[in-house]
Amino acid sequence: MVKFSQTLDDRQSKNKEKPYEQVRASNQYYYDRQPQVQMRDDRLYSQPPRPAYQEPAYQQPDNVYVPAKEEPSDIIYKRETHEDKSIQPDYSKPELQFPPDQNIQFGVEYSPNSKPPVIGKNYTIRSNSIIYNDVVIGDNFRTGHNVVIRENTNIGDDVLIGTNTVIEGDVIIGNDVSIQSNVYIPTNSVIEDNVFIGPCACFTNDKYPVRINYELQGPRIRRGASIGGNTTFLSNVEIGEGSIVAAGAIVIHSVPPFYLAIGTPARIKPLPDHLKVPNRF
């Protein structure tokens, strides 16, 4: 039979039952190994007592005015509380209630003369998308998540708007248009029918940003054009009918119809004959 050694707790519990003399005798070897402390002679190492610390007297400067102390009075001053009427909620207007599953937050008052958005039949609008007032959208409209469509935007039929795409106000989008994710379309842009815009395309409408006053002029994408991903367009450029802008191009000039724009900055080349076909979604 194997017997394990006792734990420290067991030894301590048994030591508690023994008298102090037996415990010291059993551990005498431990006490013998401890260094002996030699006491010093108090007469040789005694020091005189240290005098108590006294703070030096403070002298008031002559050029400092010290007001006279007021005599205590029996008046008890009570702090008055005043309610600020300007921060009180206005209960005259009814509080708006939205269904929790629609993820709508109300906090901005829109123009009183605006009209709610109008959307055609058979639409699919995914979560966290925002559509402003004064927006007209046709049939078979589809969006991804987190899409923003601002006021005074007209969208035709069979249009797809990808996730995280932002369409600013005063934009016209035709029929059969496919806009992929993370696309930015600024104010005063025109996108005609049968246009494809790849992901992360960025259009601009200000030729001299925050420098001089300039009339905002967005791009004009003609019928049947194809825009590759990660492309950048300067303001007031026109992409001709049936033309193609290659991925990653930076377009600084207008592209003629049925031409190819490629490179940084984009170089214009004639479009091959086998690519002169309409977009097929």
Q: How helical, in percent, are the residues?
A: under 10%
Principal-axis shape equals: elongated
Question: What integer is the average pLDDT?
Answer: 77
| SSE pattern | HHHHEEEEEEEEEEEEEEEEEEEEEE
How much beta, percentage-wise? 15-25%
SSE-based structural type: mainly beta
Strand order, largest beta sheet: 4-7-10-13-16-19-21-22
Uncertain spans: 1-11, 75-87
What's the gyration radius in Å?
A: 42 Å
Instruction: Compute the number of strand runs.
Output: 22
Number of helical segments?
A: 4
Provide a compact summary of the structure:
The chain is mainly β and 281 residues long. The chain is 9% helix and 19% strand. Strands 4-7-10-13-16-19-21-22 form an eight-stranded mixed β-sheet, with no helix packed on it. It has a seven-stranded parallel β-sheet with strand order 1-3-6-9-12-15-18, with no helix packed on it.
Features of the shown structure:
281 residues, disordered N terminus, 19% strand, mainly beta
What would you say this structure looks like, in words?
This protein is mainly beta and 281 residues long. 9% of the residues lie in helices and 19% in strands. It contains four helices and 22 strands. Strands 4-7-10-13-16-19-21-22 form an eight-stranded mixed beta sheet, with no helix packed on it. Strand 21 and strand 22 (267-270) form a beta hairpin. The chain is elongated, with a radius of gyration of 42 Å.
